[in-house]
Amino acid sequence: MKFLRKYLAERRIQKNRLVTKDGHCNIAYVSVRYSKLFISVLDFWTTLMEMRWRYVTLHLSASFVFSWFIFGLLWYWVAIANGDLTWQNPPANQSYCVVNMFDMTGAFLQSIETQMSIGYGFRLITPYCPSAITVFTVQCVFGTIIICFWCAVVMTKVARPKKRAKTISFSEKAVICAKQGVLCLQIRVANLRKSLTIGSQIYGKLLRTTVTPEGESIIMDQISIEFMVDSGKDNLFFVCPLTLYHVIDETSPFFHMTVDNLQHQEFELVVFLDGTAESTSSSYQVRTSYIPREIMWGYQFLPIISRNKDGKYCVDFSNFSKVVHVDTAPCAYYYHGESNVHDTSASTDDEGFQEMEKTDQSGASNM
């Protein structure tokens, strides 16, 4: 029973967050002027791009079968108009529009052969019926259009950067600890492929409800959060996992939070990573979010990059989500007003570049 209550509470928390851990937005639209079906049809291309593959395959198959059937009816009408069908008892010297097409089944097969350009065999169109030539021309044009359309749909879905975005991984939790004399909130992000991302930029939005001096409540007020590495915040060299940090100073919304009241706050930190895939030149965005219970005060990430005996850099992903407890002040005020200057040019880059032996770290915890 305790496990069930814990599961239901966890599920309720996940439903209440705006952005899920895998980047999906959890929001409902009500009182929309147009129905969801109308909007989907109005922007049908985006609907197809967002549709699951099984439904795309179903629509593709249905469109071909339906078009074959419709044009099969037209071929059947041509045969009826010319008196070619068996039940019409055509004379021996009948000039058929389509040779050997005597019923609806034959008309359907004639439609498939025409639209798919597989070549005529048993059935063959003749030049005696203008109506048959008209149907033949229209179906050839329509068949070319529908094939090109579905080829474009399939190629666009395959080339989408959505799958590339799934190879970018964020740490499950964020940590707060001291770095170079200032208090910082840190997250870790990794590129799971060897191909680089070009022009990578990371930033965050703190979402919370605020009350203005006039007494107006602003739900989901967005406050910009800047993340950076020691070399800067723009155009990250994303060749290996990076530990990104946000300096908690007087301008930070985390400045007035302490180790005691952090878990009682109500906010959601949404982190965005924009980049361009090097291999396809497709831009993509990866999102995740952190709520107060997913931010650990007084911990830091373990290094995950080392060098082997041959001098080659190695990434140990077993430490990607591991943290270790460190002594940290209970609030940012301890660092406020001191003469510590955050100099990004005189740093030792990300903690992950510290050379280390591949041994288990004592005191580490898995997030």
Automatic annotation (TrEMBL):
GO cellular component: monoatomic ion channel complex; plasma membrane
Reactions this protein catalyses: K(+)(in) = K(+)(out)
Predominant cellular place of this UniProt entry's protein: membrane
Domain Inward rectifier potassium channel C-terminal: 168-335
Keyword Phosphoprotein: no
Record-level Gene Ontology MF annotations: ATP-activated inward rectifier potassium channel activity
Residue intervals of the Potassium channel inwardly rectifying transmembrane domain: 19-161
Superkingdom field: Eukaryota
UniProt KW keywords: Ion channel, Ion transport, Membrane, Potassium, Potassium transport, Transmembrane, Transmembrane helix, Transport, Voltage-gated channel
The name this protein goes by in its record: Potassium inwardly rectifying channel subfamily J member 1a, tandem duplicate 6
Protein's organism: Pygocentrus nattereri
